[in-house]
Amino acid sequence: MLKVSSVSAAYGPIRALHDVSLEVGEGQIVTLLGANGAGKSSTLRVISGVIRPTSGSVEFLGQRIHHRSPEKIVSLGISHVPEGRELFTELTVAENLSLGAYTRRDRDGIRQDLDRAYQYFPLLAQRREQHAGSLSGGEQQMLAIARGLMSRPRLLLLDEPSLGLAPLVVKEIFKIIDTINREEKVTILLVEQNASMALSIAAYAYVLETGRIVLADTGSALKDNETVRRSYLGY
Amino acid sequence: MELIGSGIGALLESPVFLAAPPWENPDLFGEQIVAGLATGSIYALMALAIVLIYRSTDVLNFAQGEMAMFGAFAMWSLWLAGLEPWQIIIIGVMLAAGIGAVIERLAIRPTQGAPQLNVVVVTLGLFILLNSVATWVWAQGDLPKVFPSPLSTTASVDIGIARITEHRILILGVGLSIMVALFALFNYTKLGLAMRATAQNRLASQLMGINVGRMLTLGWALSAAVGGLAGLLIAPITFLHPGFMFSVLIFAFAAAVLGGLNSPPGAVVGGFIIGVGENLLGTYTPQDILGTEMKLPLILLLLVIVLLVRPTGLFGQPEARRV
Ligand SMILES: Nc1ncnc2c1ncn2[C@@H]1O[C@H](COP(=O)(O)OP(=O)(O)O)[C@@H](O)[C@H]1O
Ligand SMILES: [Mg+2]
Nearest Cα to B266, choosing from B314, B308, B231? Predict the structure, then answer.
């Protein structure tokens, strides 16, 4: 479904990605692991069109998308839930969700998806007229994911959804991610520093180190390989 | 004898400059309030223009008044060429929107991401550029130039509480309609929501599929149109010369800061407070002590006091983190 081929990217003089290749198959959860600064977020930014690769290509459903605008990429079916959530903190929960459906024109479909979002996240339903900034960290992450789903994506890019959350909340978020994948049939590329949690739900995993892919294997193989765990995943 | 009684005594004995108090002449009071509301709606429109840009691009547009002045002079030429006053208002607003869009694309966009001082310099540069070009092109012969209104600036009508000129009714009517329309745009339309979203978080807006650049251009166009309209509406009263928007801009800045720089409703309320306050001060204070020259410092003093008590203005929210 998604094929990233030999992508390099840079921020001015700082090179962030070197020759990164990865694939995500339809219906899978694939995780991208690595330490802080390894290039995980940059990889997602290239896919969603926020930054342009200096070389290499990104294909989605057979189309080359790496020179498309972020607006176009959203309407093609990729939704990027960024690191740190990036909610519209001074807008209400309901307004945040309706912005998630910005590229869509089907009013009825949007209303149905809104209802479904509130079913998935009942806490958000109770707070729909509150400012997003007034939510707790866990609720904010749920809102970010719900907002990302409102464009009805085929592929969801999740950047460190567990960041800064208490262990119990992290567990809940991962359960939701797994449910979205199985019930809504949304393919997921999950970026995490919390490797053990990510590996427990991912079919396949890539490990980034200073902008290069250094490991790629099935989730279970990486989880069971102790040397790999110690040297790359730090647990 | 007059000489002996000069000083404070003379002041007390010379109430010629002092209007009768409201309880003795309620009609005058009503008139001053209504006229103040009309001027206030001009300040409110200018303040809205300033706030719209400040919220969306973090820029205090010092050239806002000169953009309106430039457009008003261009419309004055069209009026001389034979267009009707109402036509030049419509064309003037569209021209102003175009000027705003072009300025955003050519002058403001390139400074985004650069240090804040750069954009300050750009708007000051625009101020000087527009003022110089207008002076060069239009400010020959007698100044100020008469500027037309679709309605009479002298004939007045009785609206119950006061008599008010037809032109001031036009100002109030158009001003209030624009405020209502902007409120509806921002609160009840998808476009308005997208513009508010862009003002808050550009990265997230981009990820939602909003064309952020287009929203910024649109914001500048809208703001310039609103500010330009304010210029076209006040020009028949103040007449045209290259500096005719200076004091309007200062009062509008005061209104925007008073209401809270990031709050459109605050800009409106601030505009009306300053408009009415200016008129009442002008009417009920003895000209010897507090003449027209003192209006500005007094308004600014009021502003300083408000900011000491409420640093974010009457309606402003503390600044949110911006990406
Ligand atoms: N906006 C930016 N400007 C400049 N350099 C950046 C920016 N974002 C990331 N980088 C650099 O790119 C590299 C990869 O960063 P990032 O993709 O954010 O890593 P990760 O998400 O794995 O922590 C780092 O060296 C980081 O300092
Ligand atoms: Mg990151």
Answer: B314
